[in-house]
Amino acid sequence: MIFDPAEHSPMECQFMLSQLVVPRPIAMVSTRSPDGIPNIAPMSYFMPITGDPMLVGVTMGLREDGDQKHTYLNASASGDFVVNVTSDRFADQIEVVAFESDATSDEFAATGWTPVDAARVSSPAIGEASARLECEIRQVVELGTPGLPFGEVHLVVAEVVWVWFDDAVLNEAGRIDPLRLAPVSRLGLRSFLNTVPEGMYSLPRMSAEEYAALEGDT
């Protein structure tokens, strides 16, 4: 099979990316509008960028009706947002907060999650989150075809100014344990992936001598 982007719609092209670039971490982004209305939205086009400064990138596209996403409008107005780690405690309500509701809707009320004050930013955090990143916007890169759903996007680069996590996600060595954090990732369309013991494995870091031996075998 082949897929020529020139022969497909923007929606079909994005769906192809979403089905092949998997699994993707889900940033459960919480913001507040200038009118004080809290908002939550899951963003699966999300990545770490660098450690100094501590930067993350979140791609925020248009709504299906062509309007700007409320998350982007809110974050642009306040200059900040919170990335709440999407753990398994959020798993059943991802599609609730993904629904494109109107600007007056309160996703905290719809989900029953608890808004709590962040430490360093104005946006609210989700009280039920096991970990969260408080972020201040540093740069917005405009990409894609302007005005076109599944085309126009804003690559929002933000600095993490505060990190909070529950002690319960730490292992005996004091490190974050991925099984205790229990993140949920995004697959294609409406499919998701839980982090479970059977799905995780570790590999030792290869030494230069071991790599040289492999080269010698070829």
Short description:
This protein is of the alpha+beta class and 218 residues long.
- Radius of gyration equals 19 Å
Which CATH class applies here?
Mainly Beta
Find the structural class using helix and strand composition.
Answer: alpha+beta
Give the total of beta strands: 12
Total of helices: 6
CATH superfamily: Electron Transport, Fmn-binding Protein, Chain A
Structural account:
The protein is of the alpha+beta class. It has a single domain (5-217), classed as Pnp Oxidase, Chain A (Roll). Helices cover 20% and strands 33% of the residues. It contains 6 helices and 12 strands. It has helices at 10-20, 70-78, 94-98, 107-111, 178-181, 208-217, and strands spanning 24-25, 27-32, 38-43, 46-51, 54-61, 80-85, 115-117, 124-126, 131-143, 153-165, 184-186, 192-194. A 7-stranded antiparallel β-sheet has the order 3-2-6-9-10-5-4. The longest helix has 11 residues, at 10-20. The model has no long low-confidence stretch (mean pLDDT 95).
